[in-house]
Design a protein that fits this description.
Number of domains: 1
Order of helices and strands: HEEEHHEHHEHHEEHHEHEH
Organism: Sphingomonas hylomeconis
Helix content: 40-55%
Domain EAL: 1-249
Mean pLDDT: 95
Oligomer: single chain
Strand content: 15-25%
Protein name: Bifunctional diguanylate cyclase/phosphodiesterase
Low-confidence stretches: none
Radius of gyration: 18 Å
CATH superfamily: EAL domain
Largest sheet: 9 strands, mixed
CATH topology: TIM Barrel
CATH architecture: Alpha-Beta Barrel
Bound molecules: guanosine-5'-monophosphate, manganese (II) ion, sodium ion
Number of helices: 11
Shape: globular
Amino acid sequence: RSIEGGLSKAIEKGELHLVYQPIVAREGLEIVGFEALLRWNTDAHGPISPAVFIPIAEESNLIHELGDWVLEQSLDMVKDWPGQYVSVNFSPRQFRRHNFVGRILDRVQRAGVDPQRVQIEITETAIFDDADRAAETLYKLRQMGFRIALDDFGTGYSSLYNIRKFALDCLKIDRSFIDGMGRERESAAIVQSIVHLGRSLGLGVIAEGVETEAQVQALRVAGCSHLQGYFFSRPVEAAVARTMAASLY
Ligand code: G
Ligand code: G
Ligand code: MN
Ligand code: NA
């Protein structure tokens, strides 16, 4: 519980910041967007991973305070880029929050940002528990111009049949499949199927966790147009992202 205590003070203490990881097209010649990823450097215990503190925040209302801060920072950042979008992670509780659509629209409008430059990343868990309500939320967001990405795709419970119901723009192939591509035939086959599925549904597909040249080549063969991972760039600080955005747009 000390993490929860520390987290509730982290914003005012200035211990949080965002880093940005490019999402590329044309095998790295173009940056189409950046994913915003939260970092927490504590005085007492050094850096703590969001994989650790997000689930704790998710158990309390802290997730909302944290999420609001992340969105605000991301909107501030996207204004510095020539045309790329910022891709923001939303946890299931944020997505299900009362008036999620109204809140996000209000923030985007106040920041003077075009919703087309904001991609909302949600996971399958966020949408399949209450599918009808989620479908309606996504529909409204999409009507307003937001991009919607289904994160960690392939690891959840979604039936392929059901994803038709949701107003999505793209699928992000979970990095476990990209990681397995060179080793197991199964992973390569799954990646291939997700790319086909995306295409036939008119969705974009982003491969996550691309680390090697061999993976880039295999993804080219599979027909995956958008890539993200250490091979292109680790998540970088705001100033570095600004320079990258300006030179590769
Ligand atoms: O960047 P890293 O690989 O350490 O992130 C670990 C996990 O934390 C990932 O699942 C990522 O989606 C999640 N995460 C990172 N930043 C945010 C954020 O701002 N909001 C939410 N909800 N999750 C985040
Ligand atoms: O759950 P989500 O997909 O949002 O998590 C993204 C996480 O993956 C972030 O923590 C980010 O730091 C991490 N990540 C991004 N690119 C790579 C990569 O090429 N390899 C590995 N191992 N992790 C990556
Ligand atoms: Mn993500
Ligand atoms: Na992911």
